[in-house]
Amino acid sequence: MSYENGNLTLYNAQRFQEGLYWCKMGDTLSNYHYLYVTDESEPIIMVRPEEALNAQHPAPPLILHSYGIKIFSLWSPWSPCSLCGMVGTCVRYGHCTISLLEFEQQEDDKVESNEALSTEKSILKRSKNETDSISEQPADYVNERLTDEEKILHRKLKRLAENVLKMFRNKLPCRSSFTPRLIQEIPEIKNRKTEIMKKFCKVKCPTDEIYEVRDRNGKVIETANNSAGIFSLAQGIPELQPSVKRVTLYEKHGYSLKLKCPGNMNTDLPVVWKVGTKILDPNLIKIQSGGRISIDSREQIKFKSLRYADINIYSCWQRNTLSGVIRLEVSYEMPKNLDYRVIMLGAIPLVSVFLYVYYRAWVGRKRNLSL
C-alpha cells in the first residue's frame, strides 16, 4: 500500500520483493532503501542471552584480515509479546552481516535499539577473552601460508567486497542477492547462521479504545468502541483489517508435514497455535508425542509421521487475535509397489474365457445363417 503521506507499506513480505526502493518527487530522488527478506532456506540456530548458563550463546564477531571484512550478527529489536494477560514469548533475530574493516561509518548508520546495543556490547566483552575463536591470524601470517593462486583470489575478493559494501553503507546481509556468490562461499560466511533469541514476557491486555464525539460545549454526544470493530461516522473510513486466511490441506498417512500460519495481522508478533481453545505448548506437545510432533523456532508445526489422530483444525493467533486457520485431512495411500506379473497371470485366464465365448458365439451365428 502506498499512502498519500509518502509511506510505502508491504504486508506479508515475500522473498521476490527483496531489492532497492526509492521515491521520486519531480526530478528529485530520495535515498535508496534496501529490503532484505529471509525465507526457510536461511540456516538458523537458537541462542540464549548472555545471562543464561550452560546454553548456546550468540556467536561473537569474526574478523577476516585476509579479506578485510568483519562478520557479525545485526540484531533486530525485540518483538512485542505474543500474549497479553498471561505469560507469552517475544523474539529477536540476529542476521549474519558483513562489513569492511577499513571504512568510516557515519554516525547515522549506528541507529540501533538500546537492547541491541547492550547485547552487542556483552558479546564484544566476552569476545576479548576468546581471541582465538573470534579473529583470524594477522594478515601477514596468513599470506605466508597461501599459494600464489590463493593470494590472487584473496585480493580479488577483497576488492570485490570493497566495491559492493561501499555502495550499501558498509552493511550487507551475508546471503543477500547483492552479496557476490564468491563472497558467500567463503567458509566462515557460509557456515555462519542466523541466530534466533527468545525470552518470556508478560504484558497487560490493552483497554478498549473508545472514540468520543463531543459538541461545542464538550458534552459527549456519541461513543464508539473501536476495539470491538465499531466506528463513528465522524472518524471517516477505517483502515481495512487483514482477513483471516483459511486453508485445507490433504496429506498421506505416514508422510511428514509442516504447518505454517497462512495469515498474519500485519505485525511482527510471534504466533501461538491452538486446537480448539487449547494452546499447543511446544515443550509439552513434543514430550506427549514422543518427538513425533514439534514446533520449531520458525513457529511451524512439524509432523514426522502423520497419523489419523492428527486430523484436526489448527488455528494460529497473534496477541489473542485469530490470523489463520488450517484444516488438516490425512488420507490412506494405495501401495505403489504392485507386482504386475501377478496381474498379468490373473488377466490371462479372463481374456482366454472371453475369447472362447466370443468364438463360440461367432460360430453359432454362422450356423444359423447357413440354415
TrEMBL record:
Entry protein name: Ig-like domain-containing protein
User: Which SUPFAM superfamilies does UniProt cross-reference here?
Assistant: Immunoglobulin
One cellular-component annotation, GO:
membrane
Source organism (scientific name): Cotesia congregata
Lineage from the top down?
A: Eukaryota, Metazoa, Ecdysozoa, Arthropoda, Hexapoda
UniProtKB keywords? Glycoprotein, Membrane, Signal, Transmembrane, Transmembrane helix
Subcellular location, record wording: Membrane
Q: Which InterPro entries match?
A: FAM187A/B, Ig-like_dom_sf, TSP1_rpt
Q: Spell out the family assignment given in the record's similarity comment.
A: Belongs to the FAM187 family.
Bilayer topology annotation:
Single-pass type I membrane protein
Q: Where are the transmembrane segments?
A: 340-359
Primary residence: membrane
